[in-house]
Structures are given as C-alpha cells and as structure tokens.
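Morning run. Coffee first, then this:
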Amino acid sequence: MLTKNDANLTIAIQGVKASFHDMAMRKYFKGPGIKTVECSSFPKLFSTLASKEADFAVMAIENAIAGSILANYSLMEKYKFKIIGEVYIKIEMCLMALPGVGINDIKTVRSHPMALLQCQDYLLTLPHVTAVEAADTAESAKDIQEKNLRQDAAIAGRLAAEVFGLNILQENIETDRSNFTRFLVLAREEDYEQVKDANKSSVRFEVRHFPGSLAKVLNVLNKHSVNLTKIQSLPILGKPYQYCLHTDFEWDDVIEFNKAIKETEDVALDLIHFGNYPRGEKVEL
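And here it is:
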C-alpha cells in the first residue's frame, strides 16, 4: 500500500503550481520526490487518477464561505474512489498584478469562480473593473505573467505572486477572514487500506419516501455514538425531485461505527461508503 510518506509519488491536483490545491498537497504529502499532475478541471482530475497517471488526487470539497462543491460529490458517486485523508487550508486572498501596474490601471480581475465569490465584497469597491472567471487562481496569475497582461489583475494566494513574479496590490481581500477550504485526498479503491488512526468517514445514501425514514438513520447513529458532522443533499440524476445524502461521520470506536454502517444499510438505500480516514487538523481562524 502506498502512503503519504513514500518517495516519488505522483499527485493529481486541480490547477497549477502555487494554487490552493498545490498548497494542500504540500501540507499532506511529506515524502521526497513528489511530482504533480496539473489538471484543468475536476473531471480531468478524476480521469487522471482513474487512468493511473497519478497515485493519489487532492480535491477541494467545501469552502467556509462558498459552501460545498456539489459537482465533486457527483464525481465521487461516479468513480467511487476512496478517501484516505483530508486537509484544511486557510484561504487568504490577494489582488496581484505585474510590477508597475496599479489598481487604477486594472480593467479586468480574473480568478476561479469560488475565489471571486469569496472576494465579492472587495470587488464591489472596484466599480471600474470586470470580474472574469478562470479555471484556477494561480493559473490566472500565471497567464498575466506569461501574456504580459498589464490591464489585468489576479486573485490568488500569496504563493502565486512569489512564483509568478507579480506584485501584491492588496492582501486579505476575502469577505470573511474566517475562511478555509477543506480538501479530500483520494485513492483508487484497489490502493485503499484503512489506516489504524482513522476516526472519520464519508457516506452517501438515500432514504425511503415516508415519514421518519431519515430519523431511523439518525437513531442508528445515536445508538452507536457516531457523530454526524455534515449532511449535503444532491439531486439524483434520472429521478426528478429525489435526492441523495452525502454525509460525514466522526467516531471513536471503529467496531461501533462498522455496526452503525451495517444497520444503516438495512434502513437506507444505495449506500456508498467512501472509506475511513483520520480527521484533518482544523486551521486556526
């Protein structure tokens, strides 16, 4: 079994070097000789891991301001990869541009849609600029450097300014300073093996359409001292007005958790267990 401390691992990330995905990857994987595969989209990230072009993948799943990335839950359902870990990154956004370019010179601010959403209050103070969505935060900074865009600015992390030689015009422009993104570390099912210090799980299931069906699941969790830390509904393709539930559970006793999963299978439908993993260390906000 591959581990995060192994040498010469290849990790798929969404975006380019100096992106927040890159930062999350660097925080989680500690082995020497780490290589990255830069993916232009989340579907590309999943296909890269599936085709064995990478050993693991790092994927954002939720942000404290913008909420859950719903499309990524759908990709999890499709590929059924296992989660082996999670990483929390404090998101500190900066406005950056080429040396010599000032805020009054800027006509366009480009960044990932999530980043633009997280900085919308600041952007309202710049009525002379147009916000343009891009594939990635750091890639926006990279484009400005490579194409010498002197009327453009990017919103990205401080590392992107350092890597791509841009000046920071304004830092900490995120709407809420208590801003973090949670990333999942994914592995192919055949490469998954539960680690001994696992105490968290992610599970997808459906409930029957009659009163008390969800309560039955919650009663099972309560019986076995399993803590429900997140619940996210998602439309079921091909079944209008029906929804599945993506949930996160935390627990102290794996035996009790396994009993809870088995009993949940009896009262819920189409359960997918994405694996047990150690809960990530929360960032200081």
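The longest helix spans residues 254-267. Good start to the day.
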